[in-house]
Amino acid sequence: MRDDEKYTNSEEQLLHLQNLLDDPDTTALKAYFSELDILDIARTLESFPAKTRDFLWEYVPDDFIGEVLAEVDEDIRADYIEDLSASDVEEIVKGLDAQEVAEVLDVADEAIKTSVYASLEQEIRAQVENLHAYEDDVVGRYMDPETVNVKQGVSLEAVQRYIRIHHLLDDESQQIMITDKDKRLLGTLTLIDLIKQPQEAVVDDYMDDFFTLNDQMKVSDAAALLRSKELHFVPVCDSDGLLVGQLNAADVLEITQDDADMTLKHMSGVSNEEEVFTPVLRSAKSRGIWLGINLLTAFLAAFVIGQFEAALDQIVALAILMPVVASMGGIAGSQTLTVVIRGLALGQLAGNNIKWLYNKEMWVGMSNGLVWALVVGLISHLWFGDAMITLVITLAIFINMSLANLSGVLIPMVLKKLQIDPALSGAVILTTVTDVVGFLSFLGLATLIIL
User: Fold this and answer.
1) Do residue 388 and residue 409 come from a single domain?
2) What is the mean predicted confidence (pLDDT) over 391-419?
3) 2 pLDDT band (50/70/90 cuts)?
4) pLDDT of 286 strictly over 90
5) Which residue intervals define the domain CBS in the entry (predicted)?
6) What is the span of the domain harbouring residue 369?
7) 271 falls within a domain
8) d(CA 296, CA 254)
């Protein structure tokens, strides 16, 4: 049994590795790394800060370095490549496929890219340059440019012979693609049909209909489609219908994971590149931008409060209860915002169902608003014994929670129409709306009813 198989979860494995690092004898550490596969090594390196990670790199088997570099987070890859010469990188990418070479060179400077391009085989070089021609957020950047495709009219026997001679199939290949003489995709052939059907038959007889993705489609849109259709293999075509690549199971998983990670980070105002062990200055810089934006919105809320200074001076209870109004609206709106952003990511919101969603959230907001307004009103009455204050906060809670739910739908929909990622700025805008509406309704009603 391998050492790491004795551990039931990744946390236990991490603790075991930390114990190995404390041991002056590095024999066990070297043995540990020799038993790991590429993905395990990449995840292990990502679980340590830079100083320890640099030490662990020495134990990564030389044959795995290129593939591990292609798997680790981009900032880790950039830190490693930064100290390498062009000849070092050329040696690392030898034997890698086009996708892996493209990942490694993504973080290299132009001089190193030019040098490495010149060292690649012509076919691999063309594929890498093609991948680098795509924007980072489109399907073409994620696809595997190597495809197994045959021309129409060929017999199944000839296809099998062709595949065996050229060793075309690998662990990820799931279907063979059938194209015309111009490489326009006509259909797909499963490996099962290739083997079990009469070998004298031609591929056209067992060609299946196919679903494709456009190479220029946004990755977030592709992720929603792939999840909804539960696809693990998809041909990729350009706008003319020409086959340019394929998405394998690993590519599909990478797209969905990256999309989920990006959404989660954007909802918290964190940049795409930041990870757990990103250096202090880099993390502070990436987060500081959104903290600055949030500060501006906070001052807007403070300005609204300042307009009711006289009311606050006369009634201390208003200052005590004011955060309750903003907090209840903020939570209600955040719940709706989360559901809506998830629906957008899954491609579930379009056309008539958006109107249904507005109606639903309006009623949810009003129902919860009424219930919790009465609860807060009762607590306020028991606390302060003032009927007017009770009335004011009850109405304010109801108004803010009702409008917060509607804002949780409206804000991401508007941002999407403006082609702005709702996850990136939706939470900041929503917080501003619920704070301003909450303070305005609470203090405005207090001014009208009490003063």
Assistant:
1) yes
2) 91
3) very low
4) no
5) 206-262
6) 280-450
7) no
8) 36
Which band of pLDDT confidence, cut at 50, 70 and 90, is reported for residue 3?
A: very low
Q: Tokens standing for 359?
A: 């109606």
3-state SS, one letter per residue, for the chain: CCHHHHCCCHHHHHHHHHHHHHCCCCHHHHHHHHHCCHHHHHHHHCCCCHHHHHHHHCCCCHHHHHHHHHHCCHHHHHHHHCCCCHHHHHHHCCCCCHHHHHHHHCCCCHHHHHHHHHHCCHHHHHHHHHHHCCCCCEHHHCCECCCCEEECCCEHHHHHHHHHHHCCCCCCCCEEEEECCCCEEEEEEEHHHHHHCCCCCEHHHHCECCCCEECCCEHHHHHHHHHHHCCCCEEEECCCCEEEEEECHHHHHHHHHHHHHHHHHHHCCCCCCCCCCCCHHHHHHHHHHHHHHHHHHHHHHHHHHHCCHHHHHHCHHHHHHHHHHHHHHHHHHHHHHHHHHHHHHCCCCCCHHHHHHHHHHHHHHHHHHHHHHHHHHHHHHHHHCCHHHHHHHHHHHHHHHHHHHHHHHHHHHHHHHCCCCHHHHHHHHHHHHHHHHHHHHHHHHHHHHCC
Q: Which residue has the higher pLDDT, 43 or 352?
A: 43
Distance of CA 111 to the CA centre of its chain: 31
> Same structural domain for residues 27 and 132?
yes
Task: Please name which of 34, 48, 25 lies closest in space to residue 4, comparing C-alpha atoms.
Answer: 34
- What pLDDT score was predicted for residue 1? 40
For residues 363 and 434, membership in a common domain is answered with: yes
Identify whether 260 is part of a domain: no
Single-letter amino acid code for the residue at 42: A
Q: Report the relative pairing of strands 185-190 and 175-179 from DSSP bridges.
A: antiparallel
Q: Give me the CATH number covering residue 427.
A: 1.10.357.20
pLDDT at 8 over 60: no
Which pLDDT value is given to residue 4?
44
**How do strand 234-237 and strand 213-214 relate by DSSP bridges?**
parallel
